[in-house]
Specification:
This protein has helices at about 5-30, 60-75, 95-105, 155-175, 175-190, 195-205, 210-220, 230-235, 240-255, 255-265, 270-285, and strands spanning about 45-50, 50-60, 75-80, 85-95, 110-115, 120-125, 130-135. With about 290 residues, the protein is an alpha+beta fold.
Length: about 290
Amino acid sequence: MSASAFHIILHSLRIATYTTIAVFSLLLFHHPISFASNTGAEVFDIKFAQGKLSVKLENSPLEKVLKEIMAQSGARIWLTDSIDTQVTIEYHDIPIREGIHRILKDKNYAFSYDPNELKEGKISIVSANKSKEIYTPTSKKPLEKLTKRGGKKKKKKEKKDTKFDALAKDALENEDAEKREDAIIELGETEDKKAIEIIAKALETDANEDVRLSAIDALLEIDDDSIVKPLSKAALTDKDPWVRESAVEALGEIESEEAIEIIKKALNDEDGSVREIAQELLDELNE
C-alpha cells in the first residue's frame, strides 16, 4: 500500500470518528441520559377521606408518615422514643385503624386506638418506655350527632331490619374479606346489642386478621357488659399477637373487674408486645 493511500484511509477514519462523536453529543444534548439509580428514592403519597386511608409509600420515614396521617385525619398521636425506620407499602381506601396496623405490622411497634377520643380517634404508638406526645392538631372536631329522619315507624323498622340482616350475612359469609370487614364496622356503628353475637362470632372464627381487629373495634362501639366475654377469649387465645394485643387494649377501656383479671392473665402471654401493653394498662389503672 502506498503512503498516499494510507493517509487517505487514515483521514477517512478520523472524519468518521469525529462525525460519530458529534452525533452522540447532539443526541445527548436533546435527550439527556440519566445514569443515576432510583434505588432508595422516596415515594410519599397519603390521602385520607371519609374515614378511609390510601397510601403509596416507598422508603418513607415512618415518623413522617404517621405525622401526615394524623394531620389529614384530625386524630392525635403519641410515640415512645424516636421512630428511626422506613416504610414501603401501598393500599387504598381502608379504615384508618387498619391502615395504621398495616404500616406498623412488620415494625417493632404496637398501637392502641380510641375511636371515641376525637372524630377519627386517638392513636397511641407504643414501643417500650414512657410515651411522649409528638403531635397534636390544634383543632378538635366534635362528634357529629345523627339526625333523625321522618317517616312511618313501621316502614323504617322494616328497612332497618332488612339492612341489619344483610350486614349480618356479609359479616359472616361474604367471600371478600374487605366486605366482611366493612359489614362488621357498620354493625358496630348501629350500636345494636343484637350485633354483638354476630361480631363476636366473626372475632372468633374469621381467618382474616384485619377482620378480627375490626371486630374488636366494633364491639367497643356497643355499650354492653356482654362484650367482655368475646374480647377476653380473643385476648387469651387468638393465634395472632396483634389481635390479642388489641383485645387486651379494648379490655383496658372497659375497666371492669372481669376485664382487669383477663389483662392480668395477659401478662403471661408468649409475645412481648402483648405483655408490655398488659403491664402498661395495669399500671395506668393503679394510678
